Amino acid sequence: MSDKTRDQSLAVLRWLVEAGADEAVSEAPINRFAQPSSSPLPSASAFAQRATADKSRTAPVAKPDVKAPSTAQTVSLSTAPGAARALAQSCTTLAELKTALTNFDGCELKRHATNTVFADGDPSGRIMLIGEAPGRDEDIQGLPFVGRAGKLLDRMLAEIGLDRRKVYVTNVLNWRPPQNREPSPEEAAACLPFLHRHVELADPKLMILLGAVSVRHVLGLNEGITRLRGKWHFYQSITLNRSIPVMPTLHPAFLLRQPAAKRLAWRDLLAVAEKLSELGLA
């Protein structure tokens, strides 16, 4: 072997070791370019024996006649939005919706989450806040807005005379996306039927949307939150046969990163306080 060939071979070996290929597959070298040795074909009887064995393995096993669970108790569904919508619409109370959502396995996000985060607070207060998705603390405790952003939200509500325990808080997504990433369209589509039914069953008189993701999925608006915030919009509910006033505002997590934006959120809260007085909710 010439020096040049040896150097090239050593360079290849170094590259393989750096790539992690530092173990041999077998102690004995294998010539993979050699012609495979011919082997006799199996006899007809061998084929017959194999077919009989395969048939016995794949034969259906009789199952006892078990009554299928009700729609609200179904544990696993397809990720198709239509299936999620049928399950959500079958629920007639918030308790049923929570049970259905907890048992729903049609969203990939649930596979990575610790808990299903449904809602918190009092729906009879008729004030509904919708955030984006659970964070780490929410995923652990199974409740929305319990981390740093939640503590800030509590203080924001208190400034306009609202008690966190007397409003109703939920999220667009009910499971935390891994590393707080943006959910895929399929993941969001599996959650939205439950959110829409959630609004119908909670029957709020006023909604506050926290952040751009909430605005996009609830109102279908793709503009930036800084352009949409501070202006009243309306959520049209066919089931409730009325429109619900909606105030988009900045997410508390954003305010923690950009404290100077709190003055904008304060203006939004003052508008909310005025609307609450008009609606008799103050």
In short:
With 282 residues, this protein is α/β, with parallel strands linked by helices. The protein contains eleven helices and six strands.
Strand coverage percent: 5-15%
Unreliable runs: 19-23, 36-48, 51-79
Looking at CATH, the homologous superfamily is Uracil-DNA glycosylase-like domain
* Helical content band: 40-55%
What is the CATH class designation? Alpha Beta
Main beta-sheet strand count, sense and barrel state = 6 strands, mixed
Structural class computed from helices and strand pairing: alpha/beta
The helix/strand order is: HHHHEEHHEHEHHEEHH
**How many alpha or pi helices?**
11
Mean pLDDT: 82
Shape: globular
Mind explaining what this structure looks like?
This protein is α/β, with parallel strands linked by helices. It has a single domain (75-279), classed as Uracil-DNA Glycosylase, subunit E, CATH 3.40.470.10. Helix content is 43%, strand content 10%. The chain has helices at 3-18, 44-58, 81-89, 94-103, 136-141, 148-159, 185-202, 212-219, 225-228, 252-257, 262-279; strands at residues 120-121, 127-131, 168-171, 206-210, 233-237, 242-249. A hairpin with a 4-residue loop joins strand 5 and strand 6 (242-249). The longest helix is centred in the C-terminal third of the chain and has 18 residues, at 185-202. The chain is globular. The protein starts with a helix and ends with a helix.
